Amino acid sequence: MLLALVQLGPLDEWSGASAQMLGTRAIMDWIRDKYGVEYAPNSRETIRRFTLHHFADALLVQQNPDDPKRPVNSPKWCYQVHRRAMEVIKAYEGADFEPLLDSYLADLPGLRAQYGAARELNRIPITLPDGSRITLSPGGQNVLIKQIAEDFCGYFTPGGQVVYVGDADKKWAVFEQDVLARIGVAVDQHGKMPDLVVWLPERNWLVLMEAATSHGPVDGKRRGELARLFMGSTAGLVYVSCFPNRAVMRKYLSQIAWETEVWCADNPTHLIHFNGERLLGPYA
Asked: Residue 263, Cα to own-chain centre: how many angstroms?
């Protein structure tokens, strides 16, 4: 992976290394073309999680140097070896390698703090209904999740407790496992959770909210998946599809399941009810 990121073929000298911005697919293709090693298409996530993410944590590479606010699920997500690391790599097998390496390692804690602070500045701050604060990775559906947590919950789930918030880069931004266990919910780590879950103790409702910007709304299939995922719940289940606006909602009108709710962030005080006996409530 490192050789791909610095564009060094089998016969190239280390001094000729160059820092390229490459996505995971481009890295795999380069290795195939230069070294004859073929990776299966479904191994991209494994490469990201077990190699490239470790490179980033070690500050060997930076992610999205051209656009630090790029959403985690963007197909343009890319990696590039850090400038300081490139100085060391290019000097490998040369007389300057050892002193450059020692200098780089000595500076690494400060560099890591500097880049960590920059990443934190780009995160999305969210104030939960109880006043506590969390941050989510930038872009993508997390912009809508912020509106759900701060607007929808304020208007429609007063007194509720946020027991789960998903985040693309670490999945469990909030996960109140003990609270869910008290109402009979044992979360399957492999099950696809909704984007945000709120428990209303006074009504004993569990409100399951999907940010329908990239994965679509609560349709019949998704409603069934969520019902199975929360089948042990002693609280009634309420399903809500959340959209940034009605223009986006119109694209999915034919898919939205009956006996569910729809909320649009551009009209936060209103709720659209898809049939059934009641507005915003669980069904047997």
From this structure: 22
Question: Is the per-residue pLDDT at 182 higher than 60?
Answer: yes
Helix ranges restricted to H, 122-141: none
Q: Are residues 108 and 130 in the same domain?
A: no
Domain membership of residue 280 (yes or no) is no
Total domains in the chain come to 2
DSSP state of 39: P
- Asked whether residue 109 carries a pLDDT value surpassing 80, the answer given is no
Nearest CA among 267, 161, 263, 249 for reference residue 213: 249
Angle between helix 97-121 and 83-90 (nearest 10): 160
Does residue 279 lie in a domain region? Answer: no
Residue from 157, 130, 171, 124 nearest 268 by CA = 157
Pairwise pLDDT comparison (267 vs 110), residue with the higher score: 267
Residues 266 and 160 in one domain: yes
Rounded to whole angstroms, the Cα distance separating 226 from 208 reads 8
Integer Rg of the chain from CA: 23
**274 bridge partner residues:** 260
Q: The domain containing residue 231 runs over which residues?
A: 124-274
Tokens standing for residue 269: 């005080």
In this structure, what is the dihedral angle of CA atoms 141, 143, 144, 147, given to the nearest 10 degrees?
Answer: 160
| DSSP annotation of 73 | T
